[in-house]
Amino acid sequence: MQPDVLTIDGYRYSAHDARATITNLGAWWDQLAAGRVCPPAFDDLAERQAALLAEALREPVPDDDHRRNISVLGRSAYAAIGDGLLDPERVLALSLDLLHEASSVLRAAGAMPETALGRLDQINVSDGGVPKRPVATASVDRGGVAGDRQAARQHHGRPWQAVCLWSAEVIDDLVAAGHPIGYGACGENLTVRGLPWAEVRSGVRLAVGPVLLEASLFSLPCTKNAQWFLDGDFQRIHHERGPVSRIYATVLEPGAIATGDVVVLEP
Q: Which of 12, 111, 175, 223 is most buried per CB count within 10 Å?
């Protein structure tokens, strides 16, 4: 029988969190690689990730496209976990180690952006739903921003989604275009200003005051955000539309933050 809660390196995953994270492995590897010159060591790690999933599923690796294999096998793993045919704790722990190593390999290869300085314009929390409301200060731990809660846990609340960040400049541009949106409206916890937003994506690290974060995956927009756009087109903030998306992050080092704190990209 699978446990209801898994603790991996101090991070807590519900059984659903673990299952959904394994399903998202393909997207995570793709976003790490996108637009970057990846060294051979990165491809070796992707191959190991695909082999890990194939071994757990007792299936052959489909072909030589390692990142596509991760997506295909990750979807198979979702069903296998639900049927009790795969141990999610082992697969998740080893997969997270591989992702951490992949980010380190990219950083060592010079694939991460140069250091840049920004500012924390607003901290946003809610007891569920949007918009999130501003607070002047907050504590941040591995579970996220204190006082913040997700109303629906199906797509939210995993350790790699502990904090959601968005660009003040992106929001300002939407306001200037006439959209009835504001800071916190789309559910970001931290509204930051002054960073090259195209560079804030999977694998980068951000220091927000004393808190250290590592970006994981882009936050996919949902229908709850349609109200903030004149035409209801909430997909305009999808990452496939350009550097306009919110981004999730894992908390590496907790601490207390305040509006106006310096934000450092790749400290």
A: 111
Helix (H, G, I), strand (E, B) or coil at 184: coil
Q: What CA–CA distance (Å, rounded) separates 68 from 244?
A: 25
CA atoms of 186 and 225, how far apart (whole Å):
6
β 163-167/190-193 pair status:
parallel
Q: Which two tokens mark 102?
A: 């992949």
Spatial contact of 140 and 257, defined as CB atoms under 8 Å apart: yes
User: In this predicted model, what pLDDT tens digit does every residue of 110-127 receive, in sequence order?
Assistant: 999 999 999 999 999 998
How far are the Cα atoms of 120, 184, 213 from residue 134, in angstroms, in the given order?
12, 7, 20
- Nearest CA to 217 out of 38, 49, 24 is that of 24
Rounded Cα–Cα distance for residues 24 and 70 (Å): 9
- Return the CA Rg of the chain: 18
pTM: 0.95
Q: Is 3 in contact with 15 (CB distance < 8 Å)?
A: yes
